[in-house]
Amino acid sequence: MRKWRYVYIILLAIYFACSPTERKREQPVQNLVLVIHGGAGVITRGDMNAEQEQAHIEKLQEALTGGYAKLREGGSSLDAVQAAITILEDSPLFNAGKGAVFAANGKNELDAAIMDGKSGQAGAVAGVRHIKNPIILARLVMEKTPHVLLAGEGAEEFARSQGLILMPEEYFYTDYRWQQFLRAQEKEKNRTDSVAEKKMGTVGAVALDKYGNLAAGTSTGGMTYKKYNRIGDTPLIGAGTYADNYACAVSATGHGEFFIRGVVAYDIAARMEYLGLTVAEAVHEVIESKLTARGGTGGVIALDAIGNIAMDFNTSGMYRGFIRNDNAPQVWIYKE
Fold this sequence. Notes:
Helix content: 25-40%
Number of helices: 10
Largest sheet: 8 strands, mixed
CATH class: Alpha Beta
CATH topology: Glutamine Phosphoribosylpyrophosphate, subunit 1, domain 1
CATH architecture: 4-Layer Sandwich
């Protein structure tokens, strides 16, 4: 009898020695959560008329509904992230896929990344010019190659080998983005102002599935009038995209150079894991210390493994929203 008492005490000690996260992971997760963003920047009520505002709201709701359908059907968090981002990439309203901005050479150069919080596997593409949905190609890089990041012509050659149809450059053209390019080009000629656009329409998603697994994905056209072949934070794992089941899933938007130098996405997860911060605390601290204090702008969406959400930014607006457990999608644009 005494022997079994000692066994019980030892097992109890092992249980409580485990971190709260590890203990939690042994329990089935009931929450189904999808969080998305469509970019952060100087977005005020005077920037859009009622029709434009409604169009953005409806597209965000569509992305949430479409991505959440994957979760409800028993699909993975990766499936939900990919589905939501694909909808946003296909919309000319956001700076990804169809609505991507133009680089200084007058071309659309697209980046994307996706990461699995369960396995730690990740895939990314950078500087592609003919891929309709870069997030799909990023997932193929993760699942079909031993690599993490493919760029330019090599990424597009891989896309062909996987049966993806490459689009003509004209597919990505929108007059709205071309006019942004022309204005930036004129400013550069006259050296009157920064060429960086005030609105940043990078899109992203983080999700939690019924298996308790997290995933994150991000897709972008980068910065208006960026240098030829400039790569931002989006396809760099740990900078603009990161997922770890034992911490959180993160997708970022904003001035990418600051996210790269601050390793923002990973830093959020690290503060949760090593300092025991909540997801909201970690996101807020990192935005303040790695962005605001250094003169950077942008925002982050993040989701922890029990469904807690953070959507924080230091600009006047960020297209954002979430859906949880079959409830109606919630969407916001402005700071307030």
